[in-house]
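Example record

One chain of 812 residues, shown exactly as stored in the release files.
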Amino acid sequence: MPTMWLGLSIFLLSGAALAYEVLLMRLVSIIQWHHFAYMIISLALLGYGASGTFIALFQHRLLARFYRAFAINCLLFGLTALSGFLLTNRIPLNPLEVLWDGKQLLFFWVIYLLLALPFFFAANCIGLSLALFKDQIHRIYYFDLIGAGAGALFVVVLLTLFYPVTCLLVLASIGFIAAAPLCLTTASKKTLLGAAILISCAVLLPLSFPRGWLGLNISQYKGLSMAMRVPQARILTERSSPLGWLAVVDSPAVPFRYAPGMSLNCLQEPPPQLGIFTDGDSLNPITRLADNGSSLEYLDCVSSALPYHLLEKPAVLVLGAGGGTDVLMALHHQVGSIVAVELDPQTVALVGQSFADFAGHLYSRSDVEVFTAEARGFVRSGKERYDLIVVSLLDSFSASTAGGYALSETYLYTVEAMQEYIAHLKPGGILAITRWLKIPPRDSLKLFATALQALERSGQERPEQSLALIRSWKTTTLLVKNGELTLEQVDAIRSFCHRRSFDVVYFPGIESSEVNRFNLLDEPYFHTGVMALLGPQRKGFIDRYKFYITPATDDRPYFFHFFKWRILPEVIALKGQGGPSLMEWTYPVLISTLLQALIAGAALILIPLRFLAVPKDGYRERGRIATYFVSLGLAFLFIEIAFIQKLILLLSHPVYAAAVVLCAFLVFAGLGSNFSRRLSDLVSSGQGPRSRSPITIAVTGIIVISAAYLAVFPMLFRYCMTLPFLLKVIIAISLIAPLAFCMGIPFPLGLSRVAEKMPDLIPWAWGINGCASVVSAVLATVLAIHLGFNVVVATAALLYALAAFCFRNYPD
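Predicted structure tokens for this chain:
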């Protein structure tokens, strides 16, 4: 029987492993970019699959020395969690060179190996426990899931309190702590001393580890690295939270001049600026504000100033206020009132407190209200209406133009988001969205198509009369009016663009002779695309277009996904002429990750079969086992990932949604696992429905609850968005609890059957589930991009049904 001390060790180790996974995502996002973090960590998690293969091959030797093997693997988790990342941080990886530098592929595989080791050792502990205590599988899985759920919250707390590298030391020390309870299974002086030594090592590791070894080797192509190569540039201060690592940089020798797409006709220079870099990229300036505001003339020379020439003293809502550039622009144009919304409270504190004197106490002015909130959630939950809503350049230029956000879901640029923005405009009010310019056109056309569809859904009879689009040499600005643009406003657009040498792309009544006059292109690509979107063959144009410009929706919120496979041969052919800039290359990276996970997972599943002794009549049973645990591994994460994305809308914040969903799913699934034996006993004793197996009962619950949620979520969210945050968290947990409880039952019941029929295959089944979970994380994203989250959940329900069919006669 497993002792409570062993359960405590499993709890601690599972929590540390999940927290380490999340922390690695943050660390690799800082060093490289978040999409490479996604790929690297996904494949590193194959350590779980490798663990199943390893135990299946050597289980008899390991089980004979269980407690020693368990403790050693705990220690190795802690050691490799720290050393693996430190070595990874020193590998000269440059993902941008993978297409033409073979060494980079080698570096990738070395990184996979180093980062997979901690997961391999943690999974060894769980797998060995499952193999030894066959009659207590439900309890072991319970401690595993409860621990992982606690780890999901713990890492958020850690990232709130400490810098990511300090969090790494804390999680590594938990490996030592997890080994300590095993010493207490036999209360001798020797084992008590061993526990004391392990705990002492855990305490001393974060306190005594040399901080000089923990510096992050940030990619030379990220904005912060380039800024710090300038003489006299220095970091003034740093801030860290789960939302990101911020660094404020002063560069007196070569000052920041952040004025995206500023007219070449403009004679006014920006005043001194400090640069805020998020995760080493995404420059967001704090601009010095003089008492008389005379230094802000340059803000009338950018494309995002256009709406201020169409409205008189508007009430303005700025979404994504950042360092305050758009707030300064509104002040310069003498608006009626300003409401500024910023997601990261650290940024607000930097502008409003740390550098308040430099910023002219911008966020303390009586005519500026600042709120810390997610933009979409703020708009949805408020009742106020505005004359102007501004959404301007909420992503970095380098990552955006390189396709770095292609795998990122965002609810800011969906059709439903546009409808909400329009609904919060006063009659005659304007929504202004500024984006980076891309050639050939991609997101500008996708944004135009999204706005067009939103206007149609909002009941605008002539949506083409409500839209205008202009471009500078680096940016585009789209205007969406709640009503039709007047002749006076059209003339104002013409005048604004002519004086600044900006190009008009579209406004009502535009003539082809008015486009492509200043920033010349070979063809008027933007205007041609917009006119095609306004024509009767819109769908055909979208289907034929070289890039994916179908409007994003809340079910498929991948606005930055533009890649189509048909462009790949052209990109390869133009490799030496800048061809890669045409490709949103993070999507091929995702597919590459999926293929690698499939190949590696298949190998890890098949290798043990050459060495494991299987009865002659056991090959059919082995196929059922493989199908069952592959289905569970895929389905569990399908639903988990889909719910994280769905609940971002309710909780208005990706970090909160991930923490709440992961914790709730894992904890309640753990409770379901603990109940699985009780359910099995009830069915066997005749107190439950004898005609159905406990697996079928659990799967029926999963399918029914999932279908009900898909039906009620849209309506439920509309009513719940205005509730207090704590109440929304309670609602989210209440929704997850019954579904997660049912989802925790099939795995221990299935593994118990394996223990009865073929106990030597327990580690193999554990490894299959791990491999399938890795594939599931990547495959769920691919399906969501193309088919939407509702299809992901429906697919998960079918996979659970397949699993129930495989073990439909349980128990025989």
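Notes: Residues 396-406 have pLDDT under 50 and may be disordered.
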